[in-house]
Design a protein that fits this description.
globular, Rossmann fold, single chain, alpha/beta, about 260 residues
Amino acid sequence: MSHTDPRTPLLRATGLTKAFGAHEVLTGIDLEVQRGEVVALIGPSGSGKTTVLRSLNGLETPDAGVVAFDGGPAVDFAAPGDRRAAERSRLALRDRSAMVFQHHNLFPHMTVLQNVMEGPVQVKGVPKPQARDEALALLDRVGLADKRDAYPFQLSGGQQQRVGIVRALALKPDLLLFDEPTSALDPELVGEVLSVISELVAEGWTMVIVTHELGFARQVADEVLFMDGGVVVERGAPSQVFTAPVHERTRRFLDRILRPYE
C-alpha cells in the first residue's frame, strides 16, 4: 500500500452519473474514503450500489464524474478523449484497487494457487517464485493452504469466496472493494467470509463494502451510505444511520430489513 499525506482522502469520487438507455442508475454520487476507513453502501437491490463500486474500479464507465486517487490517477469521465485513452484510465483505476465479487469469479480451469498467482504475475509482473511464495502465505492466512492444488469446483462456496479475497489481497491494492461478498453463500457459510473481512478491517485495510449484512456493516463501518434510486439518501456514522436515521426512506428500509431481527 502506498504512503502519502494521511490528511488527503485516498479516494474521492464526485458527480458520478450513469444511465443505461432511459434508466438513470446513478445521479450525482459523491464519495470520499480516508486511508484505513471502511465505507459501507447499503440499500435496496437496484439502487446503484454495485454500479458505484464498479465505477471506482474502472469496470464500469460512468457518463460523467471524477474518480481520483491520492497520488493518481484522476479520471474525469466527462472529458473528451479517444477510446485508447479511456481504456488507459480504467486500467489506472484498477491498478489502485481490487474487487471481490459476489460470485467469486475464479478461473475454473486453474487451481487455487494458480488463481491467486495469476494477477500478480500477469498484471503486476511479479516473478513466479515470488508470487507463489506470497500466494501460499495468503492461503495459509485464511486456512486454505491445504487447498492450493484444488480446483474451484472442489471447494465450498465459502472457501471459493475466501480464495476470491486472497486473490484481491495478492495484488496489494490500496483499496479493497467488496460487492455483496456473502449474498451468494448458504447461510452457514456466511460467517467464515465475514470473519476474514473483519480481520482485514482490524489490520487497517481501506475498504468499500456493498452488503445486505446490515449487522456486519453496523459493526465494521466507519461511514454508512444508504442509497436508493441512484442517489445517496443518507450518510453518516453507523450509530446515526442505524439508530437515528434522518430520512423517512432510510427509516422504512431499516424497519423492513433490520428491525425484525432486533
